[in-house]
Specification:
heterodimer, A: 130 residues, alpha/beta, 5 helices, 5 strands, B: 150 residues, alpha+beta, 6-stranded antiparallel β-sheet, globular, disordered C terminus
């Protein structure tokens, strides 16, 4: 089964690096789309079915946590599994995002291997529940 | 003069971030970054801690770090990629440093900008020599009590 991934991060170089890490990961990712903040992610989600989001938190326009709350309030929106990738590794923020349903929380800086193993775990978890 | 916990955590953070993101080793040194072109970024933070982090990297070193971060083995980084990498390094150093020093803090980290929030000479710089060139970092807390977030 191939997955569609959406990377949401306001840093263009971080989006590029995450995409490259996914490309070389060997994971069955069919499409890797990107958005520069939460509002842009909403536009992408209108037109594309996404299986997994990789989500930064502190972004202009709409933060990662605001995006998740907005999606969770929408009764027509099916839940989208997400992994947080953020420079903010404070205990409260990590717990807040896990409480919102994050499958994993990857603090920056991270290695490509960490992203690969957390995505593998998330995809296996999604596969098991489908 | 003995180094503060803040200074030691910042040194550890800079070294960890450069090693993880750019595969670059950086030594804490006493001599300041002198002359030449630099690429810099300022990252403001608010919440239970308020202030900003300033990162400045010699231009040639910044390009090398960008090429390493972006995996550009057969090409050089352009100005946008170099600036973007320095900004992301600033963002990650800031978030990691504050999370290590004040794990119970509640933070909001702004998007990095190029401009400086205060005159350079007023900052308490920590200097580093990475294997690709020199860089320096300073953190300024607005609040008189920077331990609020503990």
């Amino acid at each position: 089964m191939a997955f569609r991934v959406l990377v949401v991060d306001d840093s263009a170089v971080m989006r590029q690096t995450i995409q490259r890490a996914i490309d070389i990961s060997g994971l069955p990712v069919q499409h890797c789309l990107t958005a520069e903040h939460g509002r842009a992610a909403l536009s992408v989600l209108k037109d594309h079915k996404i299986d997994l989001m990789l989500l930064d938190l502190n972004m202009p326009e709409m933060s990662g946590d605001d995006l998740i709350r907005r999606l969770q309030r929408d009764p027509e929106q099916a839940p989208i599994p997400f992994i947080v990738i953020s420079a903010d590794a404070t205990a409260a923020r990590m717990q807040q995002m896990l409480d919102l349903g994050a499958l994993a929380y990857i603090p920056k800086p991270f290695r490509a291997e960490t992203l690969r193993s957390e995505m593998t775990r998330a995809l296996e978890q999604m596969h098991a529940t489908n | 003069m003995p180094r503060t916990e803040e200074s030691q955590v910042l040194e550890y953070t800079v070294q960890q971030v450069l090693e993880t993101m750019c595969f670059s080793e950086a030594l804490h040194v006493s001599e300041p970054l002198r002359g030449g072109d630099i690429v810099g970024t300022t990252v403001a933070f608010t919440g239970s801690l308020r202030g900003y982090l300033r990162l400045e990297i010699a231009s040639a070193a910044a390009s090398t770090l960008a090429e390493s971060f972006l995996g550009l083995h057969d090409s050089t980084s352009d100005a946008l990629e170099t600036e973007g990498t320095v900004q992301e390094l600033g963002n990650v150093i800031c978030g990691r440093f504050l999370s290590l020093l004040h794990p119970s803090a509640s933070l909001s980290i702004d998007s990095p900008v190029q401009k400086l929030a205060a005159p350079c000479s007023d900052l308490a710089w920590q200097n580093f020599r990475a294997d690709c060139g020199p860089l320096r970092v300073a953190v300024v807390f607005d609040s008189m009590n920077a331990t609020n977030g503990r």
